[in-house]
């Protein structure tokens, strides 16, 4: 496998375009009959993830690959939920709905505490819905979900979190205080060790994550119609399945 940044970036551009082309007639491959919620939620997540991938590429092109960490982190989270849906189907949807119920209640509590005015009808309906507890509910937390799916994804998510959030790790990219009595301040992120910046590989990281999400979503489609195309795109792009 080649690790040349320029080559891999071009592979990423081409691969992301080819992945997007697969969705042109996605509705034709929707599952027929039964509960279609996993397919619908999966598609919503996949469509959102594609836009996150384009955002990563745009930031990278403008010289803000370092600042794309929140987008890369979001891509990992979208990927994780798509893969969860592909494995657990509507059990995952039920768990997501239960998590939504709790998050909507916290939103309502915050709005009430702030004295904000809103139409309570939707909030009341969400609160009144009865969703039984299930062991799968633990996977609404990304740490156990990512550990279940792939420890590499969990490690990547942890790493991106250090840059996406206001942490000491994130702050240290903008100063160097190793010299006694002096400190150097930077207006752009600077690696202290002088090694290659992983942010230079933003497009390829986005491609890899997006491909894996497409692979998961394909399992929610009738007859897995993208299987051969995904194998070809992976081979051409020099990636291996996560």
Task: Outline the structure in words.
62% of the residues lie in helices and 2% in strands. It is mainly alpha-helical. A two-stranded antiparallel ribbon has the order 1-2. A hairpin with a 7-residue loop joins strand 1 (175-176) and strand 2. The chain is globular and about 65 Å long. The two termini are 15 Å apart. The model has no long low-confidence stretch (mean pLDDT 94).
Produce a short descriptive summary.
With 242 residues, the chain is mainly α. It has helices spanning 5-22, 37-61, 69-88, 90-113, 120-128, 142-149, 151-164, 168-171, 202-218, 227-237, and strands spanning 175-176, 184-185. Helix 3 packs across helix 6 (142-149).
Strand order of the largest sheet: 1-2
Radius of gyration: 21 Å
Percent of residues in beta strands?
Answer: under 5%
Taking the sheet with the most strands, its summary is: 2 strands, antiparallel
Mean pLDDT: 94
Q: How many helical elements?
A: 10
Count every beta strand, where a strand is a DSSP E run of 2 or more residues. Answer: 2
Helix content: 55-70%
Query: How far is the first residue's CA from the last residue's CA?
Result: 15 Å
Strand-pairing-aware structural class: mainly alpha
Please trace the helix and strand order, writing H or E for each element.
HHHHHHHHEEHH
Shape: globular
- Uncertain runs are none
